[in-house]
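Below is a typical protein record.
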Amino acid sequence: MATSFALDSSLLSKLDDRKRRNQPRWDADIIHSDDAGDFFSCDYLSLSHHPHLRERFLSTLASEPRLLGSTGSRALTGSTVSHIGLEKYLADELGVEKTMVYVSGYTANITFFGCVPQAGDVILCDEYIHASIHDGIRLNRPKLGGALCVPTQLPSIREGKATLFVVVESVYSMDGDFGPLHGILEIVERLVPRESAHIVVDEAHSIGLYGPGGKGLVRAWGLEKRLHTGMMTFTKTLNFTGGVMTMNATVYEYLSNHSVPWMFTSAPAHVDMIGMKFCFDVLKSAEADRLRETVMDLSRFFLSLFAQSTRDIPKSVLSLLNSETKNLNSRGLISPIFAIFSPDVVALQNHLNKKGNSEEQIKSLVEALREWALAQGSNVIKQDEALRSKL
């Protein structure tokens, strides 16, 4: 394969710069063992290791007449009975007018935000929302007119001629906290005319863990009728592939006729549609309810043990650097989270645990964190003493 030396030199320089600043660099040398305690993957209910799901899924596939490609984009031959049927099924289950399925949650977000907001509209979003939403907004920037100043659009919003999009997540995976949906709804409904407000909630990390049948935090709190658009992904708790947007019929029709990714990307394969429905059905089962209870029990156990084991360590010390993740991996713990994403280990407490982890593995993680924190604290003290000696 030919080499472009100028390009390679430039790319290597950027990679070296990330290393100097301790920013994340994917390490191909780390291979995670299936037997390792997994505290950071998105397989929250450990469905990937469930003993009976494989047989049940294969049995479901055996009865299906079509499994492979959709034969075209949704705008051409890809809107099959499987695709339309899944969208109707999900709409009925979630209590919305329409749903639109995508190959991933990332594609769902960039498609919606890159297409739906119109010239003169304003997007008000949390800086910690998913990168896919930021990317979609950037794609739409020429139509929106670049960086808009909200006050200049207030007259149009007040008169119902422009839309204010308010975008949040229900669960933030990196900090492990909930979005203040009640407060946001109260403010928007009080200050923004009803015809001008459009609230979007990303439930990627909520679906499967919270709510009746694992249908998300929005439905756990009974807020679904007060929101306009939602995004859910099948790649995390549901442990499959694909994403889905909930919306009204007008938005669905607009996306079907104006969304470039929807019109020019091949539709997901039939096996994806079958798998998405299969996994969604699993989440509604009594078995999934038990798995969710186990996750919450393990989370409470971790919180208690972590607080007890680190009560003598300043919270400012508990920051895990990228270079330390190999050490955890060598001890049978999966921890590929980089400090640039979440520098405060304490902030991750509420979203660390998975059903598949045992109490012994949690004890091992806490022990490793404590050992590291004590060493880190010792280094901080030494650096402080060295600095004082020079004064």
